[in-house]
Amino acid sequence: MKTLKISRILTAIDGSHSSMEAAKYALAMAKKYDAELFALTIINTQPWFHSSTLYGWASPETMEKVHENDIRHAQTWLDQVKETAENDIVRSQTKILLVPYTETSTAGAIINHAEENHIDLIVIGTRGHSGLKKMLLGSVALAVLTYSHSPVLVIK
Q1: Domain assignment present for 2
Q2: Which one, of 18, 15, 74, 21, lies nearest residue 43 by Cα?
Q3: pTM assigned to the model
């Protein structure tokens, strides 16, 4: 049996309680295994899509303001993770990815980022801001769990 070496951990956050809890677990594991932490936020950029709310066909100026607001929020979440990592003396990188919305774009972006950065473990929350509170496992978490080549730890 091959020995598992965890040296690069990815956590994907969207500001939800579940994703921030996943980030805490990822930080703790990075500290324990002396691993580098990659914190990632995906922002969907389709003109009519924003978080869990459909805006209809909004003007480009309106959507630019919406995306700027999304980026500000995402940077706040990532800064929290980065500050905690620095306090815990954990090497870390943060990134915001802007991707066009499709049914699988968020999960696909997470998986692609993991593959491009040779991630050993993905830590993700069970549910994000999808608005589907009754689902046992969010669609993004389920897709990452199903299609990732890296091991995935799902945090409730």
Answers
A1: no
A2: 74
A3: 0.84
